[in-house]
């Protein structure tokens, strides 16, 4: 049986799932076995000191299997391919014109009103990526504009000295900022939400997988986190409303002071388009 050492991040694994699906029966070294429950994959626990990954592996202890050994190949995308997904394909020699980005079915109790998920801007000490974040005031402006039309839920996993908010948290009717939700709850919430708001990160591929409308506000560090990298032509993205800074910084630094300014009119128009998509999605989910 082929063995693959997967990536560690939640977002990386959501992207990676589409590639693993094409690999067929295999062993996968991953901290996120919940993402592969419907695939013929033996998930193997991975040694890591990363906080969120360790927490999830403890929760999912019974989902891991004993490794069978064999030659190991690594899935990755650093320096490979024009997009992250294509890089992953190239890393395992996979040639596909089409990929299936759908995700496993999980449920989360839905509020009475149509829900929007917001991912506030945060920084982690383990993997600091401040330049990637959108300006927190833009996230706040979107939530303020939509707070009377939707039930807004904010998700993060903050811990003093390890992960913290950048700026003020955007408005939310319901807040889970200390990792209260398991990854299955988070995926269930995304799958039934009317829409989601945030920057580049796990929320984007999750919204692609569940066809949930997203208002994607870019920050900086564009060489690695611009549309040309995080999106792939094989992805269904008509429901992703992208808001790119006026002078999008194409730097390669996670610490650069990127210009993230967005024209107010651009943001307003994008909010309105997203609102229409979210309303249509809410009607469809309710039906």
Question: Could you describe the 3D structure shown?
Answer:
Helix 5 (183-192) packs across helix 6 (203-210). This protein folds into two domains: 3-91, no CATH class; 115-286, Rossmann fold (3-Layer(aba) Sandwich), CATH 3.40.50. The radius of gyration is 18 Å and the shape is globular. It contains nine helices and twelve strands. The strands form three sheets. Strands 9-7-5-10-11-12 form a six-stranded parallel β-sheet, sandwiched between helices. The protein has a four-stranded parallel β-sheet with strand order 3-2-1-4, with no helix packed on it. The protein is of the alpha/beta class and 287 residues long. 43% of the residues are buried. The longest helix has 23 residues, at 264-286. It has helices at residues 10-23, 51-59, 84-91, 136-146, 183-192, 203-210, 222-225, 227-230, 264-286; strands at 3-5, 26-29, 41-44, 72-74, 115-118, 122-124, 151-155, 163-165, 174-176, 195-198, 214-217, 240-243. 32% of the residues lie in helices and 15% in strands.
CATH class of the largest domain: Alpha Beta
Number of strands: 12
Query: What would you call the quaternary organization?
Result: single chain
The number of helical runs is 9
What class would the helix/strand composition place it in? Answer: alpha/beta
Integer-rounded radius of gyration: 18 Å
Along the chain, the helix and strand elements come as: EHEEHEHEEHEEEHEHEHHEH
- The tally of domains stands at 2
Q: How many angstroms does the end-to-end distance come to?
A: 43 Å
User: Remind me, CATH topology of the largest domain?
Assistant: Rossmann fold
Helix share of residues? Answer: 25-40%
Residue runs with pLDDT of under 50 for 5 or more positions: none
- The CATH architecture of the largest domain would be 3-Layer(aba) Sandwich
Fraction in beta strands: 15-25%
């Amino acid at each position: 049986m082929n063995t693959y050492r997967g990536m560690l991040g939640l977002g990386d694994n959501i992207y990676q799932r589409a590639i693993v699906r094409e690999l067929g029966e295999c062993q996968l070294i991953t901290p996120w076995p919940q993402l592969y429950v419907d695939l013929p994959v033996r998930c193997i626990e991975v040694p890591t000191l990363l906080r969120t990954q360790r927490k999830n592996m403890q929760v999912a202890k019974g989902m891991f299997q004993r490794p069978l050994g064999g030659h190991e190949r690594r899935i990755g995308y650093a320096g490979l391919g024009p997009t992250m997904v294509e890089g992953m394909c190239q890393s395992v020699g996979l040639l596909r014109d089409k990929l299936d980005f759908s995700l496993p079915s999980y449920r989360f109790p839905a509020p009475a009103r149509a829900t929007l998920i917001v991912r506030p801007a945060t920084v982690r000490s383990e993997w600091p990526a401040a330049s990637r974040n959108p300006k927190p005031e833009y996230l706040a402006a979107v939530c303020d504009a939509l707070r009377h039309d939707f039930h807004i839920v904010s998700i993060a996993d903050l811990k003093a000295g390890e992960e913290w908010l950048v700026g003020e948290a955007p408005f939310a009717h319901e807040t889970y900022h200390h990792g209260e939700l398991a990854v299955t709850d988070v995926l269930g919430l995304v799958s039934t939400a009317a829409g989601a708001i945030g920057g580049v990160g796990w929320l984007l591929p999750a919204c692609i997988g569940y066809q949930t409308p997203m208002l994607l506000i870019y920050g900086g560090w564009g060489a690695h986190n611009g549309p040309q990298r995080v999106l792939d032509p094989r992805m269904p993205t008509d429901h992703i409303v992208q808001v790119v800074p006026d002078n999008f910084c194409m730097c390669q630094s996670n610490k650069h002071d990127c210009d993230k300014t967005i024209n107010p009119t651009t943001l307003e128009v994008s909010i309105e388009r997203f609102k229409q998509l979210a309303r249509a999605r809410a009607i469809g989910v309710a039906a």
